[in-house]
Write a structure and sequence with these properties.
The complex is a heterodimer of chains A (140) and B (116). Chain A contains five helices and five strands. With 140 residues, chain A is of the alpha+beta class. Chain A has one domain: 2-Layer Sandwich (Heat Shock Protein 90). In chain A, helix 1 runs antiparallel to helix 2 and helix 2 packs antiparallel against helix 5. Chain B is of the alpha/beta class. Chain B has a single domain, classed as HprK N-terminal domain-like (Udp-n-acetylmuramoylalanyl-d-glutamate--2,6- Diaminopimelate Ligase, Chain: A, domain 1, 3-Layer(aba) Sandwich), CATH 3.40.1390. The radius of gyration of chain B is 12 Å and the shape is globular. Classes of the chains: A alpha+beta (140), B alpha/beta (116).
Chain lengths: 140, 116
């Protein structure tokens, strides 16, 4: 591949019903490009968790996916409230999501643990009151 | 177990994926928390759920789930059915409850030898 493949999405934070649509799109594109199903699964689950998180906690943001010969990188940027305690957020079962989110089937506190589980690299850059940038990589 | 057998066992209606009725599935997961589906489902099979929103279909798509069974007669919207068709997922609707649905499928042999 001579030039890296890039996808950009604006994630609407106002409408939960569309949450996850960008990840479905990415999965479809990667399938069309015939990547290994296991790689596709990892990338799409990790991105989906992040996308849902952005809608639940940060009123949306942007998602950028870049595919090179060696890796697939997902960068999720939001201008949300930031994460005061990353260690706590990384704990399985810890969630600050409200009951209305649980009624929609999310907020079990498995978002970040799952993103870590399905990727080879996870970095969370966050400033309280300013926003969060989550960078994930899956090696090809 | 074939999807058509699941349909018959549950007296279910098929709302999407007629062409997948002969598709073989070996495992099932029953859950209303999509977070847990993302965390615990290990191999592609059937999702039994009473939750009705587009994220059920998207979550199933992420996990390569082949068939969604909506229980308690809670029908998915037209938009969800279209999304499932796009994602190549079969959709069944049964009047039975989640516990009964799971019990019937388990007794018929689904998921007994599968992980997750």
């Amino acid at each position: 591949m001579s030039e890296n493949l890039k996808f950009h999405f604006d994630i609407d934070g106002s409408d939960f019903s569309s949450a996850g649509a960008a990840s479905v799109m990415v999965k479809k594109k990667l399938r069309q490009l015939s990547y290994d199903p296991e790689i596709i699964r990892k990338v799409s689950i990790a991105m989906y968790e992040g996308e849902i998180n952005m809608v639940i906690h940060a009123n949306g943001g942007t998602a950028d996916v870049e595919v090179s010969d060696e890796e697939i990188t997902i960068v999720l940027r939001d201008k949300g409230p930031g994460i005061p305690d990353i260690e706590l957020a990384m704990q399985a079962g810890y969630s600050t999501a409200h009951d209305n989110i649980r009624n929609l089937g999310f907020g079990a506190g498995m978002g970040f643990p799952n993103m870590k589980k399905y990727t080879d690299y996870l970095n969370i850059d966050t400033v309280v009151g300013e926003g969060t940038t989550v960078t994930m990589k899956v090696m090809l | 177990m074939k999807i058509c057998e699941i349909r018959d066992l549950l007296d279910a209606r098929i709302l999407a994926g007629d062409e997948k009725l002969d598709c073989e599935v070996t495992s099932a997961f029953c859950c209303d928390m999509m977070s847990d589906v993302l965390a615990y489902v290990k191999d592609q099979g059937v999702l039994v759920t009473g939750l009705v929103n587009p994220q059920v279909v998207r979550t199933a798509n992420m996990m390569d789930i082949v068939c969604i069974v909506f229980v308690r007669g809670k029908a998915p919207t037209e938009e969800m059915i279209e999304l499932a068709k796009e994602c190549d997922i079969a959709v069944l609707l049964t009047e039975k409850r989640a516990f009964d649905t799971s019990g019937i499928l388990y007794m018929a042999g689904l998921s007994r030898n599968a992980e997750g």
